Amino acid sequence: MEFEESGIGEECGVFGCVAAGEWPTQLEVAQILTLGLVALQHRGQESAGIVTSTGTNPPTYTTLKGMGLVNTAFKAEDLLKLRNGNLGIGHTRYSTTGISELQNCQPFVVDTLHGKIAVAHNGELVNASALRKKVMRHGVGLSTSSDSELITQLLALTPPMEELDTPDWVARIQNLMTETPTSYSLLVMYKDVIYAVRDPYGNRPLSIGRLVPISKLHSSGAGEADTEGWVVSSESCSFQSIGAKYYREVQPGEIVQISKNGVKSLIVVPRPEGDPPAFCIFEYVYFARPDSIFEGQMVYTVRHRCGRQLAIEAPTDADVVSTVPESATPAALGYAQQSGLPYVEVLCKNRYVGRTFIQPNTRLRQLGVAKKFGALTDNFAGKRVVLIDDSIVRGNTISPIIKLLKEAGATEVHIRVASPPIRFPCYMGINIPTKEELIANKPEFEDIAGYIGATSVRYLSVEGLVSAVQGGIESHGKDERISTKTTRFGHCTACLTGKYPVELEW
Amino acid sequence: MEFEESGIGEECGVFGCVAAGEWPTQLEVAQILTLGLVALQHRGQESAGIVTSTGTNPPTYTTLKGMGLVNTAFKAEDLLKLRNGNLGIGHTRYSTTGISELQNCQPFVVDTLHGKIAVAHNGELVNASALRKKVMRHGVGLSTSSDSELITQLLALTPPMEELDTPDWVARIQNLMTETPTSYSLLVMYKDVIYAVRDPYGNRPLSIGRLVPISKLHSSGAGEADTEGWVVSSESCSFQSIGAKYYREVQPGEIVQISKNGVKSLIVVPRPEGDPPAFCIFEYVYFARPDSIFEGQMVYTVRHRCGRQLAIEAPTDADVVSTVPESATPAALGYAQQSGLPYVEVLCKNRYVGRTFIQPNTRLRQLGVAKKFGALTDNFAGKRVVLIDDSIVRGNTISPIIKLLKEAGATEVHIRVASPPIRFPCYMGINIPTKEELIANKPEFEDIAGYIGATSVRYLSVEGLVSAVQGGIESHGKDERISTKTTRFGHCTACLTGKYPVELEW
Amino acid sequence: MEFEESGIGEECGVFGCVAAGEWPTQLEVAQILTLGLVALQHRGQESAGIVTSTGTNPPTYTTLKGMGLVNTAFKAEDLLKLRNGNLGIGHTRYSTTGISELQNCQPFVVDTLHGKIAVAHNGELVNASALRKKVMRHGVGLSTSSDSELITQLLALTPPMEELDTPDWVARIQNLMTETPTSYSLLVMYKDVIYAVRDPYGNRPLSIGRLVPISKLHSSGAGEADTEGWVVSSESCSFQSIGAKYYREVQPGEIVQISKNGVKSLIVVPRPEGDPPAFCIFEYVYFARPDSIFEGQMVYTVRHRCGRQLAIEAPTDADVVSTVPESATPAALGYAQQSGLPYVEVLCKNRYVGRTFIQPNTRLRQLGVAKKFGALTDNFAGKRVVLIDDSIVRGNTISPIIKLLKEAGATEVHIRVASPPIRFPCYMGINIPTKEELIANKPEFEDIAGYIGATSVRYLSVEGLVSAVQGGIESHGKDERISTKTTRFGHCTACLTGKYPVELEW
Amino acid sequence: MEFEESGIGEECGVFGCVAAGEWPTQLEVAQILTLGLVALQHRGQESAGIVTSTGTNPPTYTTLKGMGLVNTAFKAEDLLKLRNGNLGIGHTRYSTTGISELQNCQPFVVDTLHGKIAVAHNGELVNASALRKKVMRHGVGLSTSSDSELITQLLALTPPMEELDTPDWVARIQNLMTETPTSYSLLVMYKDVIYAVRDPYGNRPLSIGRLVPISKLHSSGAGEADTEGWVVSSESCSFQSIGAKYYREVQPGEIVQISKNGVKSLIVVPRPEGDPPAFCIFEYVYFARPDSIFEGQMVYTVRHRCGRQLAIEAPTDADVVSTVPESATPAALGYAQQSGLPYVEVLCKNRYVGRTFIQPNTRLRQLGVAKKFGALTDNFAGKRVVLIDDSIVRGNTISPIIKLLKEAGATEVHIRVASPPIRFPCYMGINIPTKEELIANKPEFEDIAGYIGATSVRYLSVEGLVSAVQGGIESHGKDERISTKTTRFGHCTACLTGKYPVELEW
Asked: ∠ CA B34-B39-B40 to the nearest 5 degrees?
């Protein structure tokens, strides 16, 4: 099921680009940023922003922000104003509320005694509330509720600017990292440098790519000398669309300096001893685009393994396997492969359905999700269907689909969910429905199959998910301890288990 | 490959709705029309229009038109103005050119001596040019280039209005049908009636549905007494999304009268003796939504059979079968089933890529279609891939995809096209590139595999396509005559064979 | 008082331009048309349209239409598409109602057996209803309610196209003029010619100008050889803003042919014997821009004379004379001059007040027109004010202004209206409130001063208005007969006297 | 001449409103703010903003900002979100440059340890640069270039927040006033209070009004008990349009507290001993709306006196006096009265001329300002014209008007300017062209009449302007010292004399 309907939302995507060589380069940095953000659009559709710097001394910064999708938010004539940028960072933001939302749009730029810095941020500072108080106690007013402004003011604050001839931003970033352990993947732009930062727990993703001539994009012969610039992105899926090759991930706790001279690792801030990394496991399950690579593995492949593992844990006596298009398809194909059942399509999505002007209290309201899907009856009429979904969060969108399939002739509809039930809130940047809204916390969960009208419902186990993410497909006994696994493999499963990577301040 | 890139375009979709019972009914006709058009959006995205009638005597007509997708073209507050409509017709239009395109937007409404009629039309009058002259010779000025205006004026013209007490629209429609044999699926609204008309060759589709209470939509118990109204649509895929059950197709040459009292077949205008019907075979191959039903069969199923037939005709020694998402997927699954090769996904589509502000002459231009697809490398690296496409029209969009797959590690890329090469223009409502642009007519077609960079290329045969559409899967010898088949089964294959259903006037 | 508040509205403005010399000329015809329409914007703000012709054989016509003010309706990039136009006509339209108003937007273009013609029209056909029936009886459907479409179809209709080798548009226009006596100022474009037509009664204005090099615009030395082209416009006020010199008026009943070769009078269709011309006297009183010239006299000067005549007819014992800005100022200055009272400004207009989001039922609603004017208290506190208005139509806008002045310290407020009371509807193109809404037809008119809160109210007499328009300032005895005057001088005063220039068909 | 063409611009207008009585009141505060800003629209058209507070404890602040005119910037549905506001401040801003201008839009709101404050500001801090450095040295990043943000951070900064139980904003405002002497008229909103502040020199205007029932607006009987709330505005012209009575001006250096309980003067911060106040004299000459009241006198009346003084200083042997509409009209009427020459109108303004799509290098470019004005020839042909303008700043807009008048028949055109030549930059909030652009600093000024094509040119003297502002009309000998006058009367004439009210820091 689409997460847009489930109510689960990613906070943001960040993207940066530095042209190699002297100013002005011929590299179309503003356009690369725009296309990079388009490729990260699935991580946030509310607003988009770009800041470019000429990289000169002094630099000129140019900012472009707008509401909505990237292609809506920016106008062609405005992009032209950024064309002198030799480097820049961009941001695409998930929905917020309030009237003047443009104010919360990132990147956030502030002028300091040593010039302007720009910050783009994906994640959520677990101790944001305490940090806001600290900043305000110092006499600073905060004009937005965004963590980016907070981070920017924290960077400007300590140590006091006057004591320094140069700002030493790296020390300031390091200082920030000791004040707040997670979660943030951060791009900080200052003059001609972008600092790419990932929190010590590595909760949010951040990858580096290398721009090469398009003609050499896929050839193995693009050497160092061919480098046209560097990009850094929440997900590697954006690299191909702007002509970059995957280079490496920023490591948990690492500060990487990216400039026209190349990529340089400056420092790796350690976690408290014994703490494992805590990369968000839902990046694999849902958020990331299937062609992105984390920890050396393609997200699609992990989802396919989730499907296979689900087939092992929850086999079904049925005739066909199918998917709720489009995000559950890899898992469905995995389930089909492992189970040996044929994979068929049962639903056809109308991609033009959007906001439609349906007045309340009409018969059309009752149609609900059915407006969005057509039933491919021939493929399942008279058959027992295993329907794979990637997540059931609130339980109110799968129900009409089951009804549709049954009424169109499916004799049985078995729901198999390729992730465990979400039970706990996230404080690291994911927007999850309240505990009360989560189906897994409702009394109805006792008989969820009855509640949603399915013949049967089974979820993937936490252990199974972790195995699939690890690369293994295995059978899990009930006595195995998940905690040792998360320690070993370093993924945050807090929303599934309630075990948070750091102690939460309330 | 998406036809939007191939340059092939459907002309239009039409949709009508009549509420049962007396005026004003509680049925939200304007909203049903809107949702119906949204479900036909794949048939035309340039503009949309709706005309409703109160169905009273005299009736009040209200018109709403706009450029772009249905959800963009209409505003909620404007829809409210149509709320008294007891019946109405709507239209969604494929791209045209020119400055004031809104003028060409349908439905077309004219005031006559006997009151207003509204016309919506899908198709193209083969003898439009002669008919325009006839109308103009009579002293009528035509304000647009649309066939709808032409049809409307023809209906008003003969016999002269003054000679009649009542207009007898049915006789006028019948008269029109003798003047122009094809192609048109037509909705003509007058006062409280919609006439649903399909040309004698049945070139364009038209289906009727019955509105029932949503709660009874899928149950078998919705009897006559439950009828809330009637809808008529280019494709049956729109029925589910507005709460209607499939009723039947309008037959070639038939005039069906739809009113609050029900559906009534008035007449069937015959074809010249010996002429078979000529339903456009490309509705099956490409235009229609997979969940639509024509001639009693689901489009998805026909496409799946095309894939199976293709596997018989053009088997491949390969490791995996895949699709160019999304339209070729049914054929790919059919090919996989028939061939026994595993089906995998190799491309991940970025659904947010749209108009992006790329300036000419930049390195980004070279990326081309690659911006739109991500490679799911794990699924095919080191493997021989059979890639199914539904059509290769101009040959310039499949090429970069093959390049992408090869560079990402595919050892071989065999292209299998689930339809025959297009070689001839269409004069019945499909917008096909010029003969010179069609790859099948270029010298490069001799070595098309080399031209597009594929390991091999094979098209489905015309005989194979016709078999698949018939419902059979068979092996075709070279001596079989396609002509007998099209005669028997009544499909127009003119764009593939050059044999047009009627003699063309030049 | 602004007519926009009084509810009186002009129907339209028309404008045409032909470049001298061969195609393509360097003259920017589309831009001249745009600027010309901007200068006629006071005649209609609802929509605007332009059609240009290349003037070649065959010609290419390009149409541009949009809702709202000219500067809003047209986009710069669209204007570029008209840049090849060697000639063209344009139209600016007063408000209509209904959903798809763009359809009614002029010019109207239709394709005929002999090619396309375009028509722009100011006025209203008195026998439109009968003419519509005639056209429809012939079997023609009319797609709009506009007179322009009607005129266009009438031109195409008779004599039948087939009987002619060439269309002979002049004969057709002449034929039209015999079928409908008034009111129309018409521009008909065909290929490389514009026919400028004024109805036999000359009810609506139409003037011709000559384009000269800007550098010679005001010099007397711009001879024939300097002619760059010709323009034709509802009002001469538009000439200066596009670099044209006033040439002459089109005469009542005249058809003038304007082409690249110059201006040629073709024919003058006579009125029924004894009928005087009937130029709309309200063009002088209100509609026209003060710098326009009709019948050899400047509109400003006529209004000034109206003020002087009003001072003679309705002298006042007061301290200062003032105006309701801005349209009544010439009359106020005339009144001041004639009466010897000092002219002062008492109201300051806030030009930014427009649609403001005031919710119903709030205290702000009660402010009414006061939001629009500030009181210049120093100029009238403690004084007796004569306030000149150009018209009092419904009586509900002058009232709050009087209240404002009194409360701000005026001891007396005498209203003097520089035109007679409107009592009758107009059927020649002016949108006048219903008879019931006109203050002059209400019982309250008996004590209008009491009704609107003024110390006294006096209107200019019909005789006085006619004198002022004639050029004379005189005292009128009660026994003088207005009918003889309108006969002699040829102005339509139907809305004041109920005497219409032609017999009305009901 | 319109200042919009002269290049002189006001920085801003501020407006605040507090409803009397308890929350929620029935007063439509958001709408009053909107209308108040519309009435101040002449002070800034680039962007508009409103912040309302519920006035509860804790309060809820709601912000609304947009680009363009007030009626464009705000949408009706957004205003509804502010409907719970019991008090609020608003701002309308003059043009700035740059891409993301919305960021600079005021009011500026920041969250502090003691809650949110909102600041709206008209003026320019003379020592802004030093103050920015001070703030940044403290470790604060500034996200905009606006003085409002700077003021807001300065208020938050000193004394440090942590040392206080309550913020004591008044002490903080007082502290700010000692740090920066001018220029600012400031509205600071905190919870349920608005602090209205005027700098010690009183450089920018600020007036207080009292909201009363509309029915009692103009009666003298609206007593204390009728008070519905309080408003504070850059100009009193906004009071009438929202139903408020003029109360008094905020005095130079005064902090006035406005709450639901009424208006209270808290403190008056003194100027350095011997320094006179320095109210901007150009508020009288140009910026303010004529119906506003400063220092007890109506702006219109001052302009009228300027015209009379000009007639004394620069009498002309001519036939008629006229104005460049609309802003110079009061001075022209004053000149006419004093000189005894008749006042006539010579130019008619086309109010629809706006941005029009004129391509470069066309003949139409040469038309220049003539597009905007029509010549009322009858009023001046064959006559010697005295044309009053309020200011000639760059000298390039009056020139084509003189040309137009001469070519239309004026025998002489004498330019009389109702203010002295501008020679020096302003550092107190007025946007003046660079010294090099000012005609008074160019060599051409030597023979300005020749340069602009006038028969003669005379400016009002500085002494004469000061006299007119004082209320006197007199003859000035050359030996009189302007410095004593400005001391006595307290107006800033720096742009005319180069004598700034405070020492400038460079």
From this structure: 95
- Structure tokens of B39? 């479900």
Q: Which domain holds residue B179?
A: 33-275
Among the partner residues B64, B117, B141, nearest to C156 by beta-carbon distance: B141
At least 3 CB pairs under 8 A between chains D and B = no
Q: Are residues A87 and A131 in the same domain?
A: yes
Q: State how far Cα B394 lies from the chain centre.
A: 20
Nearest C-alpha in B relative to A375: B291
Phi and psi at residue B305, in whole multiples of 5°? -65, -35
Chain D residues in contact with A161 by the CB 8 A cut-off are 136-139
Are residues A206 and A100 part of one domain?
yes
B306 a known binding residue?
no
Number of domains in chain B: 2
Q: Is D281 inside a domain boundary? A: no
Q: How many CB atoms lie within 10 A of CB C424?
A: 18
Partner-chain contact D374 C289, CB within 8 Å:
yes
Say which of D298, D344, D352 has its CB closest to residue C38.
Answer: D352
Q: A with D: how many residue pairs have Cβ under 8 Å apart?
A: 104
Annotated active-site residue in C12, C105, C237, C306: C12
Question: Distance of CA A103 to CAs C304, D90, D119, Å?
Answer: 55, 17, 16
Q: Could you give the residue ranges of the DSSP H alpha helices within C59-168?
A: 70-73, 76-80, 128-137, 147-157
- Is C12 marked active-site? yes
Tell if the CB–CB gap between B352 and A71 is shorter than 8 Å: yes
Was A237 annotated as part of a binding site? no
The closest CB to that of B156, out of C64, C141, C155, belongs to: C141
Is the Cβ pair B143, C65 closer than 8 Å? no
Q: Taking CB atoms and an 8 Å cutoff, what residues of chain C touch B113? A: 133, 136-137
**Active-site annotation of D, residues:** 12
Distance (Å) of CA B321 to CA B328, B336, C255, D446 = 12, 6, 74, 87
Residue C285 lies in a domain: no
The rounded distance, in Å, linking the Cα atoms of D39 and D31 is 12
Residue B368 lies in a domain: yes
Residue C370 lies in a domain: yes
Q: What is the pLDDT along chain B (506 residues), one digit of tens a residue?
A: 444 455 566 678 999 999 997 766 767 899 999 999 999 999 988 889 999 999 998 899 999 988 888 888 888 778 888 878 899 999 998 764 433 467 778 899 999 988 999 999 999 899 999 999 999 998 899 988 888 899 999 999 877 776 667 778 999 999 999 999 999 999 999 999 999 999 999 999 999 999 998 877 766 666 778 889 999 999 999 998 888 999 999 999 999 999 999 999 999 999 998 899 999 999 999 899 999 999 999 999 999 999 999 999 999 999 999 999 888 999 999 999 999 999 999 999 887 876 555 665 567 777 766 678 899 999 999 999 999 999 888 887 888 899 989 988 999 999 999 999 999 988 888 877 788 888 889 888 889 999 999 999 999 999 999 999 987 766 544 433 333 333 345 899 999 999 999 987 65
Whole-number Cα distances in Å, C401 to C344, C412, C413, D213, D242 = 16, 13, 10, 18, 16
Nearest to A28 among B213, B354, B364 (CB): B364
Taking each continuous run of H as one helix and of E as one strand, the counts in chain B are 16, 23
CB contact under 8 A, D376 and C291: yes
Work out the minimum CA distance from C3 to partner chain B, whole angstroms: 28
Predicted structure pTM score: 0.88
**Sheet architecture: strand order including D115-123:** D108-112, D115-123, D184-190, D193-198, D254-259, D262-268
Q: Is the ipTM of this complex over 0.95?
A: no
Minimum distance, in Å, between the CA of residue A150 and any CA atom of chain B = 31
Judge A/C contact: 3 or more CB pairs < 8 A: no
CATH number at residue D337: 3.40.50.2020
